[in-house]
Design goal:
Length: about 220
């Protein structure tokens, strides 16, 4: 069977992003129809080294760039174009989206631990919490440690380290010991025999009495 690569209409795809060198919001790709929609949204046509592109005028404040880029992208998508819009330019994106995602992730871990049907599944959750370097607790410890390092010079200038700042340093050690204890529990759970899921019982098969073979006459 002859498998040929599909033909992609590359010009139908459009990228709207902010150029880090110039600070301009540029739109690359698209067709003549795209150019008309972008022009109505405040974009200007320009000739670049790799062909024509579209950009917003110089000197626009960042918020105004966002207010022009977002509706332009949605107008293009509404007529069937595929558009990648830089999340930083999307005024509809939640500014605390990362925090909400983190909270959902933690809630999901708690749910996984509650619904775990075996010790091995519990061990997997504990690994996420306390794994060296990449675990949640070691990462939290790095945040606390960085905060303590930042506060220490200010405490030295004042002549003595305040008690709360000193306790912050101690907290990093507490987090380290806690992560170690959780890893010990993880190792124990990983070696434990598989347990039966709640609400179920194991049954031992009952041996059936053997039936003697019929005698031949």
């Amino acid at each position: 069977m002859n498998h040929e690569e599909p033909v992609f209409w590359v010009l139908e795809y459009l990228t709207v992003t902010k150029d880090p060198r110039t600070g301009l919001v540029v739109a690359i790709g698209g067709t003549e129809q795209v150019a008309g929609i972008l022009q109505r949204s405040g974009f200007l046509d320009a000739d670049g080294p790799r062909g024509p592109y579209h950009r917003l005028p110089h000197g626009l404040p960042f918020q105004e760039q966002r207010l022009k880029a977002t509706p332009a992208s949605h107008a293009l998508m509404s007529v069937g174009h595929s558009v990648y819009l830089d999340p930083a330019l999307n005024v509809l994106a939640s500014p605390d989206g990362d925090q909400e995602a983190a909270l959902r992730y933690l809630a999901g871990l708690a749910e996984r631990a509650s619904d775990a049907t075996s010790s091995r599944k519990v061990a997997e959750v504990l690994t996420v919490v306390a794994a060296p370097t990449t675990g949640l607790l070691p990462l939290v410890r790095e945040v606390v440690l960085a905060a303590w390092i930042t506060l220490t010079p200010e405490a030295d200038t004042a002549g003595a380290e305040p008690e709360p700042v000193a306790q912050l340093a101690e907290s990093t050690e507490v987090l380290l010991r806690t992560a170690h204890r959780i890893l010990l529990a993880r190792n124990h759970a990983a070696r434990a025999p598989e347990r039966t899921a709640p609400g179920t019982t194991r049954t031992t098969p009952v041996e059936q009495p053997s039936v003697p073979a019929a005698r031949r006459r």
